[in-house]
């Protein structure tokens, strides 16, 4: 007699939310992403938690400062693939302009957000979204235990 089929447990978890394209909306996106990470077992103060929330903060800030279209929101999607040990961050806005990684002058007090994303994420990019605008995404590889590297280039 064959054994009954039991589906394998899902290792992918999602968090999806829309936010107003304001500084307050960007702050709320960062705070809610941090709460979601805690719920997924990545406590505040851990390298993984800090790296992912910084990436969310930078991408949300870019959506508000550079991707804002009056009357339009931005969306945040977090996809946690526990099997692969990766969190994918996607921030979508309705502006057509794509971000570019550039090195600001040393005396400028802004323009380093994507440099931080590039340093903390294992990879990132931009793609068109359904409808107007684009989605900026980043993936962070999570540490596998004590003494292992967290998100970022060192984890590659």
What's the alpha carbon Rg, rounded to whole Å? 17 Å
Major β-sheet strand ordering: 1-2-3-5-4
> pLDDT below 50 for ≥5 consecutive residues: which ranges?
145-149
N-to-C SSE series? EHHEEHEE
Please describe the biggest sheet, giving its number of strands, its sense, and whether it closes into a barrel: 5 strands, antiparallel
Quick check: average pLDDT? 86
* Overall spatial form: globular
Number of E-type strands: 5
Q: How much β-strand is present in the residues?
A: 25-35%
Distance between the termini: 46 Å
Name the helicity range: 25-40%
The number of helical elements comes to 3
Seen as an oligomer or otherwise, the chain set is single chain
Structure class: alpha+beta
Give me some keywords for this one.
globular; 26% strand; alpha+beta; 5 strands; 156 residues
């Amino acid at each position: 007699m064959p054994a009954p089929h039991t589906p394998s447990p899902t290792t992918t978890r999602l968090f999806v939310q829309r936010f107003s394209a304001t500084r307050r909306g960007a702050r709320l996106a960062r705070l809610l992403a941090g709460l979601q990470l805690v719920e997924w077992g990545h406590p505040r103060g851990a390298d993984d938690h800090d790296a992912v929330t910084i990436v969310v903060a930078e991408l949300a800030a870019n959506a508000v400062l550079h991707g804002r279209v009056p009357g339009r929101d931005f969306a945040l999607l977090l996809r946690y693939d526990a099997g692969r040990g990766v969190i994918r961050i996607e921030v979508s806005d309705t502006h057509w302009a794509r971000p570019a990684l550039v090195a600001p002058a040393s005396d400028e007090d802004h323009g380093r957000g994507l440099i931080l994303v590039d340093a903390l994420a294992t990879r990132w990019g931009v793609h068109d979204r359904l409808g107007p605008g684009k989605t900026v995404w980043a993936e962070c590889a999570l540490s596998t235990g004590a003494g292992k590297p967290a998100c970022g280039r060192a984890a590659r």
